[in-house]
Structure formats: structure tokens, C-alpha cells
Request: fold
Amino acid sequence: MIKGRAHKYGSNVDTDVIIPARYLNTTDPAELAGHCMEDLDSEFISKVKTGDIIVAEDNFGCGSSREHAPICIKAAGISCVIANSFARIFYRNSLNIGLPILECPEAVAGVSNGDEVEVDLKNGRITNVTTGKAYSAKPFPEFMRQLIEVGGLVNYAKTRLKA
Reply:
């Protein structure tokens, strides 16, 4: 179960505002996290707490295909991203690094900035704890939940090879 405060954004949040290109000379997740969303929301890093959730409208993660974007989001403490839709490469990169992302327009419409949100990945249930309203997203299949739980595709492959 994931639970955190919502940080809400609009449409077309691209990878250049998630992690500005001027910081792409590093692959250190902690260093990237310190600059997460700074060109869109200069106070993001000071506001976010471990476990918080990003909620956004359409086409989240559009732009370049850099893996730095989901890495810095996860390293900043974000536990899940909920949006109306995602850029396909961002969607894949997020799952590859173990960052759960859910498409659920009803939840996006029903969650406000600062609301407490709870996400049940197994059942695809998103609950706005602040309002008491619940929404349904398509749940991940078991192997995808395992991939997310172990921190991404590389760790998942390692555990499968050991078995």
C-alpha cells in the first residue's frame, strides 16, 4: 500500500522540467533528486516527503527519452505517479526502474494538490483519503508488481536468474 500527499500538475510535463538538461552530466540519483521539478516548481524538493505522489493531467513525461526523469522522481521520494496519460517511453522507463505509474483520469479529476492519497497497486484502487472518494485504475499483473517491488527490471531479472 502506498500513501502520501498529492503534488498536482497540469498537462505536458516534459522530461526537461522533470530534470533539466543542465543536470544530465550525472547519473547519481541523489544529486538528480535535488533538482527534480525545479524549473516547474522551484519549491518541489522542499515540499516533497518520502512516499508522496505526483498527480498530473495528460502526457506526463513527454519529451526526450532520458531515464534520468523517472530516476530523479523516485529518488526525490515520490512513491507513485498518477496521470490521465503518460508518454510511452516515460511509462516504460518508469517501470524499468520500479516507479509505479497509473493512468486514471477520474482520480486526477478528483484529487487536489495537498490531498492525502492511498494507492493499492494489487487492486488498482486509488483512494483520496481527504475526501473519502475511491477510483479504479487497471491493476498491474503480478509479474509487474513484483518488478516494481524489487526496484525495477534489472533487479527483477537478477532474482529470476537466481531462482
Summary: The beta strands are 2-8, 53-56, 80-83, 101-103, 116-120, 125-128, 133-136. The mean pLDDT is 95.
